[in-house]
């Protein structure tokens, strides 16, 4: 089981929804720039003195320097609103019709454009009045505006035009992972999240849900990071970590927010669709993928306080940015249970900015390849879609997409959104499971699956060990040498961890008789100087003949060294005769059966035919 990492982020002070201490600007004026769609070129022309804070599809919120005037080129599209007021928080609020939106409490409207309202509130995230909530369809979502400058929307890469998506080929290793996604397992986790009754960010149930998910990640063998980013009460993000094998510093995220909301959020906000459905997909992906190996690290993220303006993910992204983490991308999922009323298969809308469109295409291809009858993917390149946790990644310059059930943010929308009626019984079980299968495929593809072959059982795939140089494959058969030896597919007579044929090929062992066995390992019998398989008087005669009558030398001089003194001389003939006729005892090892010389000396054993078939 992988270890748990419980990380607490120190807090400089209590900051309400903002949660972490951020350097407050010295001053300036809150302003908006209107546009038809996010336009990085327009922001560039505004100059460095204006800091981008947040944006939507209707406007950008910028901080103008103290005393700034409206540049002539921006007359009519840039509006200075008010001096920065640090006593409250600023929010962008996404809603179907900004003109018809009214808000409860102290929220003060500063600007309305299209589907976006800019507000300031000193009482936390703004909420629509009950009348507005009932009359306005679709997403009603605040975005807490950080005072840290945001990354601007990216410029489209023309090679990735939506009418010419790249062809995605999935590794064969991905298919069995997708097949392991189980509707019953998914539904059980989904039901457990629903059973908390509420996961509203400020309730004990929210903390209980966080602890439950941390425990679940541990049962899957993952490392766990619990990031407590705010106190009174504690609010935390929960991250399950599957370390990568080849490049663990590169990270692929799959995320969803686990908090919920309703008009009675403190006591009842089941949030089955929004967003137990997405959270259950993250947890099911963790269950399935935890048993596999990948080149890159995968982090399974359950974000908190999305309903208060993406607060949890914003804090988490600030943390990983400070740590300079290398983020490959984030797949975020927010509401994947309502199948809608259009023709089957139900849609999965995939929202992306241009920098992240490759991730969107991978997810779309995963739907088409693995669940073609269960999900119809629709990719929307919309940098103004900043209404879920992917925006926290965008604001740090990371690639991210969000998958959501509806074909558009406002059409055919879940009728139980943000109500106490958002319960699991309302939704089909197959549709979110199909989406989860596509998630698993896309995530595995981007994290790069590795072969499960692990012949030495050390938990590291053979291919990884060979590629990283931690295992050798001297005969280039794709199997680590130690596994070849263990399986007796290769011999290692000298027990140096290198197959005999490799020792010979590399010149680290001699093979005088070219029989494929290193000379030092062939084995011999001490005293059998003539190598006829018997120790008798002929061996003493053979030694004497070699020494005094120019007879041939023993093919294994070690065999002729009967007294094992490191020299071939008359004393060896005497030792053989003493053993045979004077009961002087056995000769030194190896004696009686084939073996190797246990004494280091300069003698060799080039060939000993009686032992060629068996070595030690």
What does this structure look like?
The chain has helices at residues 40-46, 130-135, 174-179, 183-194, 204-219, 272-289, 311-322, 357-370, 390-394, 430-447, 462-468, 481-486, 500-506, 537-548, 557-560, 570-581; strands spanning 4-8, 29-34, 51-55, 59-64, 78-83, 89-94, 108-113, 116-121, 141-144, 223-230, 235-242, 247-257, 296-303, 326-333, 347-352, 376-381, 400-404. The radius of gyration is 36 Å and the shape is elongated. Helix 14 runs antiparallel to helix 16. The relative contact order is 0.10. By secondary structure, the protein is of the alpha/beta class.
Please summarize what this structure is.
The chain is 26% helix and 18% strand. The protein contains 16 helices and 17 strands.
- The share of residues in helices is 25-40%
- Tell me the Rg in angstroms: 36 Å
Shape: elongated
Q: Work out the number of β strands.
A: 17
| β-sheet strand percentage | 15-25%
Number of discrete helical segments: 16
SSE-based structural type: alpha/beta
First-last Cα distance:
40 Å
Side-by-side strand order of the widest sheet: 1-10-11-13-12-14-17-15-16
Largest sheet: 9 strands, mixed
Sequence stretches where pLDDT stays below 50 over 5 or more residues? 1-18
Mean pLDDT: 89
